[in-house]
């Protein structure tokens, strides 16, 4: 079977009845990740629910971003990195059965620093759809408007679509990056400390936006801000020294955690 046939079959399987019925988007089983000899993730077992916000918290260097990047195979780009175990997206193993390009179309990502392309606002959002082969102006116009609306920034930007994205404020740039991620119609949005470089007002707008996005998308976010996790996440997973110590609904994790390390972390004993 050729790789492309495999990718096509995987995409088909991804929307099979069984997968759609399941409320689990990502199912990670016994995931170990190594950067050379250094083991950054140890035996991670974690399920992330569909159309819910899952926050990943934990002290610096505990493996949150590494774990997030395993979900769209961004670690593949790191030399010497290897991964064991399985990560299923809608029932399909993303390392064994899915083309990384199909995966990344399904799993959008927003980073800590807003990273718009040095292009117009319109071209930033139309970039992904054009890569997918969409060329008709009318269709692109519709996608750009829909994506900017979903990212709650259409009203602010609709009269300056041809202007450079680099002229926007940090908060506007981050919402534009969210619109750019949504334009290719992913089912999952990964956010790696997406508000940590923003002021409180922009942060509040993005939190509000993420809360509305979960009607349609599964959101997985790394955050250092425990208040933020408590404000918007449905579920929270606590990472420590490469291990996923505990995952529960957010209220339980912060108010009634089971594990000693979680109790110490959420009560501010260490950070
Ligand atoms: N490309 C890499 N090569 C080698 N080691 C790496 C690489 N990226 C991360 N690491 C190491 O893996 C461990 C986990 O890093 P990671 O960035 O995932 O942690 P984190 O919890 O997201 O930290 P922070 O909250 O500070 O961003 C750290 O010890 C880090 O130094």
TrEMBL record:
GO biological process: phosphate ion transmembrane transport
One term of GO molecular function: phosphate transmembrane transporter activity
GO cellular component term of the entry, any: membrane
ABC transporter domain: residues covered: 26-266
InterPro entries with a match to the protein in the record: AAA+_ATPase (IPR003593), ABC_transporter-like_ATP-bd (IPR003439), ABC_transporter-like_CS (IPR017871), P-loop_NTPase (IPR027417), PstB-like (IPR005670)
PROSITE patterns: ABC_TRANSPORTER_1 (PS00211), ABC_TRANSPORTER_2 (PS50893)
Keywords of this entry: ATP-binding, Nucleotide-binding, Transport
Keyword ATP-binding among record annotations: yes
A Pfam family: ABC_tran
NCBIfam families, per the entry: 3a0107s01c2 (TIGR00972)
Protein known as: Phosphate transport system ATP-binding protein
Lineage: Bacteria, Bacillati, Bacillota, Negativicutes, Veillonellales
